[in-house]
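Problem 12. The chain below contains 385 residues. Write out its predicted structure in token notation.
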Amino acid sequence: MLEKALRGSRVYWAWVLFLLAFAGAAFGLYLYGWIADVELSNLSRDVVWGFFIANYTFMVGVAASAVMVVLPYYLHNQKEFGRITALGEFLAVGAVLTTLLFVMADVGQPTRAFNMYIYPTPGSPFFWNTNILPGYMVLNLIIAWFTLDAEQRGSKPARWVKWLILLSIPWAISIHTFTSFVYSGIVARPFWNTAILTPRFIASAFASGPALLVLLALAVKKYAGYDPGSKAIEKVGLIVTYAMIINVFLVVAELWSALYSNIPAHLDHFRYLYLGLGGHAVLVPWMWVSAVLGIVSVVMLIAPQVRHSQRLLAVACGIVVLSTWIDKGMGLVVGGFVPSPLDKITEYMPSAAEWFIAGGVYAAALLVVTVLYKIAIGVKQEVAG
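Solution.
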């Protein structure tokens, strides 16, 4: 099947070369910072996690969301999901790749990542989270690849593939659960130290991931000549609707808890994010954009007319992705560090180098997803023909 990725139009190869060039340039900048020992980020002793970990957290949720198309197709035999399931599984592969690359970018040099294996700490949720992520990526790659291979041969997938599918369902939930545990278990950070953080992570994952899948499915339909099916896209849009409603509800519940209890250690983080604190308000515009977009997306998605219109659904899903990316990224990560446990306010905004390297990470993952989608679409079209 790999040969299908080696055949394509000029537009396809131009897109591949652009992604390669962008990812390569970003990798060159990363190497420069590593070899020359130059600080490329705006991180400090008070804010030790920034833009890279913010994107890591968001993309773990995108990876976990593949289960939302796997469940109805493989467990409930919803045939309309058959044309979109492989796209969801390959999206999970690309999403996990971004998380691993963002961890590498954050630690500064790849050799440091090996310390986790040389000096393992099984008591740390981060140890488990970083280990189960590659497993989940390989799991989705194997399932999608061998399912497509069986489809190409006109046979059913092997029995062992079905067992891997069943294994992938709890595995998907676990990767984002452990990600939330990384944050919520830190006692010195009241903004994260809340039991509601895990359901918030899961809800936002099941909103942002399927929303991104809808956008990719519509892009594939427009530019690759492959129709994943209007019914499947609408149903994924309905999943986004329910998940986003729950996500907004949980955010409001968390905000109510902080306001009503009026505990400064918890409330000051929300004040900093939404109102500013002590004259510091660099993230306030970000958070209000996220809040407004979150409400707008819910209002749009509730209307059946929006979900039935692919153009309006694309707009709503784009809004969902942007809203959750801000809230679950910069808002969650940086908001947990400001103010510090000693009430010190050290603001953080990503540097130009951080933006560029992050763009390179997404370009590398998008390149992998492009190749995998080319293979999946090629097989689907061959079978249909």
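Discussion. The domain at 2-384 is CATH 1.20.1630.10 (Formate dehydrogenase/DMSO reductase fold). Students who got a different answer should revisit the alignment rule from Section 12.3.
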